[in-house]
Specification:
The protein is 34% helix and 30% strand. By secondary structure, the protein is an alpha/beta fold. Strands 1, 2, 6, 7, 8, 9, 15 and 16 form an eight-stranded mixed β-sheet that branches. It is globular, with a radius of gyration of 21 Å.
Length: 380
């Protein structure tokens, strides 16, 4: 019997496994993908804060460094969010995190979890390769969140869709390689298009409630990219709004995408996944040390207090889904060529005097400002 079984070897699962195995407890990682990190389902961007907060070195999976995010609006206006970040080789990053856990003693098996039964201290995970027993189970099984569903913890799931092309940099010379460029437009319904420089290549994609291949093709055309030059396509789903009874049960904790840690506005989830992995690991270690599995219940309360699950994020995302291009024009008129941190309450008020209808939407504007400021501080 293992002390901890972690279902899923993405960033959250591998971080959890690394920390628990480092204390000497036995850990089994169950990963259904034959090759960790593939297929790629990510824009492959992280912030410098993410590495610093999680004490991660700049590995060879880093492909390019950027100054932050440049938001491009329909009117041609733009503004900046200064938060240094990196384009990464996501598959290489995920593999490195898993290998780090294995070096500390965690075991990895390639299998697909089929069911779970038992109780805290005596769990059984049934897979296509046999059954495994563990005292604690961590559900790090991605957007499907099967462990949470099987245990009655997850009631509803709402996803966003994302599609992405990869292009060689020689076909993207018109693009700014100093920033991650985000394109906002009413046609994305709160989602966005993106252009992420990666040194010798670029990721170009669209994500949102109505994202599609045709929308990606249209986006590429609108910014002067020849889609016939694409060399690869990726697609995936992004957790948007999950309704949980709890993200923990006695002897069970749900982390990463499985816990809907993904930011509903930006779609980013790596930093939040790693943070949830760290918190779950600490609770698992304490539970094992004290032989008290009810300690895992503390995880739900603690994870809900993190900035990654601040209610402003989902409220902001729902507001932006209703924004029209004139709303983006209003924001652009305040911030064109400036940093997002220049959006002071006073500047917003003065702009509102020129457009009184926005004063009536003060709660909405303040919520969006709050969510964006959290993003800048804690990573997108």
């Amino acid at each position: 019997m293992y002390d901890v079984i972690v279902v899923g070897a993405g960033p959250a699962g591998s971080m959890t496994s690394y920390m628990i195995a480092s204390t000497g407890y036995s850990v089994l990682m169950i990963e259904k993908k034959k090759e960790i990190g593939f297929p790629i389902q990510c824009g492959e961007g992280i912030t410098q804060f993410c590495l610093q907060y999680n004490k991660l070195p700049e590995g060879n999976w880093i492909k390019w460094k950027v100054k932050g995010v440049k938001s491009v609006l329909p009117s041609g206006y733009y503004f900046y969010t200064e938060e240094p970040g990196y384009s990464i080789d996501r598959a290489g990053f995920d593999k490195w995190l898993a290998e780090r856990a294995i070096e500390r003693g965690a075991e990895l098996v390639n299998a697909k979890a089929k069911a779970i039964e038992g109780k805290a201290g005596k769990w059984k995970i049934f897979t296509n390769e046999g059954e495994y027993k563990g005292r604690i189970v961590i559900g790090a099984d991605g957007p499907s969140s099967n462990i949470a569903r099987w245990r009655g913890l997850l009631m509803e799931r709402y996803y966003l869709l994302a599609y992405q092309y990869k292009f060689d940099a020689k076909y993207m010379k018109q693009m700014d390689d100093k920033w991650f460029s985000i394109y906002w437009h009413e046609k994305f319904r709160g989602g966005y298009g993106w252009v992420f420089p990666r040194g010798e290549e670029y990721n170009v994609g669209v994500g949102g409630v109505n994202a599609s291949v045709s929308q990606l093709k249209s986006f590429c055309k609108s910014i002067g990219i020849d889609i016939d030059k694409k060399k690869e396509m990726n697609k995936g789903v992004i957790p948007f709004a999950y309704k949980f009874v709890s993200r923990a049960q006695e002897g069970i904790m749900i982390v990463g995408d499985a816990a809907c840690m993904t930011n509903p506005t930006s779609g980013g989830g790596i930093q939040a996944a790693l943070a949830s992995g760290r918190i779950s690991a600490k609770k698992a270690i304490k539970s094992l040390e004290e032989e008290n599995f009810s300690i895992t219940l503390e995880y739900d309360r603690e994870i809900r207090k993190t900035p990654y699950l601040h209610p402003a994020h989902l409220k902001c995302a729902r507001y932006l889904q209703k924004w029209k291009n004139e709303d983006w024009l209003f924001l652009g008129s305040i911030l064109h060529g400036k940093k997002f941190t220049d959006l002071t309450l006073w500047r917003s008020f003065l702009a509102g005097l020129k457009h009184p209808s926005y004063l009536l939407r003060a709660r909405e504007m303040l919520t969006i400002r709050k969510a964006m400021k959290i993003n800048q501080k804690y990573g997108w």
